[in-house]
Design brief:
By secondary structure, the protein is an alpha+beta fold. The chain is built from nine helices and eight strands. Strand 1 and strand 2 form a beta hairpin. Helix 1 crosses helix 5 and helix 4 runs antiparallel to helix 5.
Length: about 220
């Protein structure tokens, strides 16, 4: 599978990089929050500015044909804290889980219309607001504060419906769920974890080798 805008590696100073990594993810998906934070954390550790994340909408409320279950999201958050993400979800509350991600997707699309870096920053800020600050990202006041923080105005009609394009593209590519990363001609579904479900019991198993494979593909290696 090929990521639009990210299939060709640029070279600078003997380093080959993918300029953009695409991710299909839902704002209310705690697994995506972990994957995105691990990605930007590794990038910061390496002192790099690229690749940039292009986080595309994968609206689980449409995939599953039902609104979010706040208690189920809270259960996943607790499981992630216990296994791989003790540093995240510090102020999460199930009371903040929105009934829809679509307004948040619209704000992210508005930011991406100005550039990938702005879009990435807003996509991360939306998830931090929900999972690390306990704020409802469907609340107009919360969205307005995030928009103002990044110099964005009122959302226009086009961004409000941008999720439809992403959802159609994700289905065309065979997105398996949230998050699904596309790096050049490779793709990685939920790379940080293996999630096993049996008799309604969920088991989360860390997959350090898989997330390392993703990060090794995303970030440059010095040649020679």
């Amino acid at each position: 599978m090929i990521a639009a805008g990210g299939a060709t590696r640029a070279r600078a100073g003997g380093i080959a990089i993918h300029p953009v990594v695409e991710v299909f993810a839902d704002v209310v998906c705690p697994f995506a929050h972990v994957g995105l934070r691990r990605f930007v954390g590794r990038r910061a550790e390496l002192g790099l500015e690229a690749p940039v994340l292009r986080v595309r909408a994968w609206p689980l409320e449409l995939v599953n044909a039902r609104p979010f279950d706040a208690q189920q999201v809270a259960q996943h958050v607790a499981e992630l804290r216990d296994t791989v993400a003790a540093d995240l979800f510090t102020r999460f509350t199930p009371l903040a889980v929105p009934s829809t991600s679509l307004p948040a997707f619209a704000l992210a699309a508005q930011a991406y219309a100005t550039g990938d870096r702005a879009g990435e920053a807003v996509s991360l800020a939306l998830r931090a607001a929900l999972f690390d600050e306990g704020r409802n990202v469907a609340d107009p006041d919360v969205l307005a504060e995030i928009a103002a923080r990044f110099g964005l105005g009122e959302t226009s009609v086009a961004p409000q419906h941008a999720y439809e394009t992403d959802y159609a593209e994700g289905r065309r590519r065979g997105v398996q769920g949230s998050p699904h990363f596309y790096v050049g001609d490779r793709d990685f579904f939920c790379p940080a974890l293996r999630i096993d479900r049996r008799d309604d019991e969920l088991t989360i198993i860390p997959r350090p080798e898989r997330i390392d494979a993703l990060l090794d593909e995303c970030f440059p290696l010095r040649e020679g």
